[in-house]
Amino acid sequence: MMKAAGLLLVPLPWRAACAFVDAEHRHHEPPRGHKFSLGAMRDGRLVGTAIVGRPVARGLDNGRTLEVTRLATDGTANARSFLYGAAARAAFAQGFLAIGTYTLASEPGTSLRAAGVAVHVTAVRSVDDVAPALAALAAAVGADPLDTADPLDTAEAADPAPGARPHARRAFVPIWRRPWMTINADTYGASLLARVGWMTVFGDATERYPTVELDDVRRSAPDAALVPTEPYAFDERHCRELEAELGCPALLVDGKDVFWWGTRTPSALRRLAQVLP
Q1: CATH code, residues 127-275
Q2: Which of 79, 106, 153, 247 has the fewest CB neighbours in a 10 Å radius?
Q3: Eight-class DSSP state of 122
Q4: pTM of the model
């Protein structure tokens, strides 16, 4: 057991970690599984937990990477950075090569920095943000900048249709199930789909990733459901379910093409322009 800043690190049973997350996490319920969970104790009282598991994004689930899928504290000072650092050390001690996590866009990464993690924040909400974000990332890690001023130049030269279709079709784009969640217009995925002639039916939602009911989706009368394979592992079974529920076609699309921005953006645009009606 490790002790620092008045905090004691302990292994935590799965159910105890989930109960703490359920009580203290601001916006997420416990995850479905874990590799291990850690607790931070102070004066004999549990004040925080980190649940570490396989990456949610299947493209990162390579057997060498872990993810802090939930981290919750009761507000005790230094508990978050204490747990982030401990989770990383435990992962590396078990032979894993990398560990990651997700934070809200509104969070500056203070706890990660306090844990000794170098933090570079990106905020890519449209296709137009991709080239500047890649240049900033290259500068942050000391790499040579990519030889591309605007990744859209390549994509639009290959297919002049993106961004130029006069009548955009309306799509329901689920990103999660139980509860159903989707995207609004202020997201990279929505921006990318707009380039190939599709707009999300919940584009004007206040939250970028709103929770919705299928009744609301039906009332929005989408032309189709565009069902990405990430971040939720949707497959053809879910497409058939949505077709029955919504009364419109449901098309399975590559989630990496829709949501993974970067050097893949030009080829993703070309592929989507080819596969979407």
Answers
A1: 3.40.50.1980
A2: 106
A3: -
A4: 0.70
